[in-house]
Specification:
Elements lengths: L1 H24 L9 H5 L10 H12 L3 H4 L4 E2 L1 H28 L8 H37 L5 E2 L2 H5 L5 H29 L5 H25 L11 H18 L5
Antiparallel strand pairs: 1-2
Helix pairs in contact: 1-9, 5-6, 5-8, 6-8, 8-9, 8-10
Length: 260
């Protein structure tokens, strides 16, 4: 009787895991490109919106009465809160990556495919931890600069402050490295579930982890595309944000050969 009940429980768990995996991977957010972007015929551009450039010029040099009349205030406190919202989760993930990637029992390496999974797992452990630490450093330095130069941080909104030349790279880099580290973390969970879990639930658990990864990818894409809901955005998707980040890094490197 106990064996029959256990089999029923396992079968029910399989059904629930498969249902969750299918539902999450078929979600509207999974690999979603925002509707507003799909309907437009604009090509991808790794440059900030012209609206921000016009706003910057009008604030610094003066301009038409409509734009120059916008109220500018110090939004450094709000910017510090936004950076802090990433520092804490990044530190939490970094703390979880150390035991998961370096202290936990190694994956199986009996077959060729298992050795490949183990190699990929080890690479993901290093890259994910490095990404989280880079995100923390970028955000911490930005918070310090916002405190040191708060009197010069007068803009029309916190979004405009983050899109300014002083903080655009820091904000985009913080988000990119945090999200990449998060994706690496859930990928490690999927690999460990596939390699270490019992065969009765290994595939379902792996599918659930992958579905969670796709769902998070879509949620991030939607959040990036929404911007500040007033037409100002940093990009249209995660790939666009990474492209903009690489452009900013190249520009920094070109202006300062010793810049990282």
């Amino acid at each position: 009787t106990t064996t029959i009940v256990s089999n029923h429980i396992i079968n029910y768990a399989h059904f629930v895991l498969l249902l969750m995996a299918i539902t999450m991977s078929r979600s509207y957010y999974a690999f979603a490109v925002p509707v507003s972007f799909r309907r437009s015929n604009k090509s991808l551009s790794f440059k900030p919106s012209n609206k921000i450039h016009v706003l910057r010029n009008n604030i610094i040099r003066g301009g038409d009465t409509t734009t120059s009349s916008l109220l500018t205030t110090d939004h450094s406190d709000a910017a510090r809160v936004l950076f802090g919202n990433i520092i804490n989760p990044a530190a939490l993930l970094a703390g979880g990556l150390v035991p998961l990637g370096f202290l936990a029992s190694p994956l199986k390496s009996d077959t060729k495919s298992e050795r490949r999974c183990r190699l990929l797992y080890n690479i993901l452990a290093v890259l994910s931890l490095a990404n989280q630490l880079i995100a923390i450093v970028y955000a911490t330095v930005a918070c310090n600069k916002l405190t040191e130069t708060s009197l010069k941080s007068t803009t029309t909104s916190v979004f405009a402050l983050l899109q300014s030349e002083d903080y655009e790279l820091s904000w985009i880099a913080t988000n990119v490295h945090f999200i990449m580290g998060l994706f690496g973390f859930i990928s490690m969970v999927a690999l460990r579930a596939y390699s270490m879990f019992p065969k009765t639930i290994s595939k379902e658990s792996t599918g659930l982890a992958i579905s969670s990864l796709l769902l998070m990818f879509g949620i991030v894409n939607k959040g990036i595309a929404q911007g500040n809901r007033s037409g100002d955005v940093f990009g249209n998707s995660m790939s666009h944000l990474i492209g903009r980040y690489l452009v900013l890094l190249f520009q920094q490197q070109r202006s300062n050969v010793f810049a990282i």
